Amino acid sequence: MKISTAFCRSVLVALVVAMGTAFAQSAQDADLNWVFASRGHIPKTSLAAGREANGDSLYACRARLANGAETPGKIRPPLVGCSVAFGGLEWSLAAYQVLHDGGPKTIRWVAATEVPQRAYKVGREPDGTALYLCRAKHLDGSVQIGRVASRGCVYGFGGKQEQSPEFEVLVKP
To answer: Is the pTM of this model over 0.85?
Structure first.
């Protein structure tokens, strides 16, 4: 029996909303502040970590999937949730956290082909493996936000999961 993509998305979103926004403390780094948000809200102090091809800002967010993973992604108006890549698709999750930009910070982006030693842990896989925030240039000229994977930066774009071998990672100085 084949299950429709729309049905799978509906089930995943329902599970995430039902679970609430209980994120594990292990994914919280003392130097980064995450702000709880939902249904498209982007706090005024959110970190603009990427941009669309038209110049609109993309903000770093993370959301908890039904499998327990806490996955980084992106949000921007008028999206109604944090957009994350999982299982070959782009998912929008209504309950999420947005990375807060508290002014001059001890963060920076560095070009990488793998996770640098001083990278911030911003999420986790269901088995507890740390996830790291990355950003990569897409073919349309935008700078998309996602997570570091074994072969590059994985991010959602146009409803699908995309990957780039050239990317930057958020690191401590």
So the answer is: no
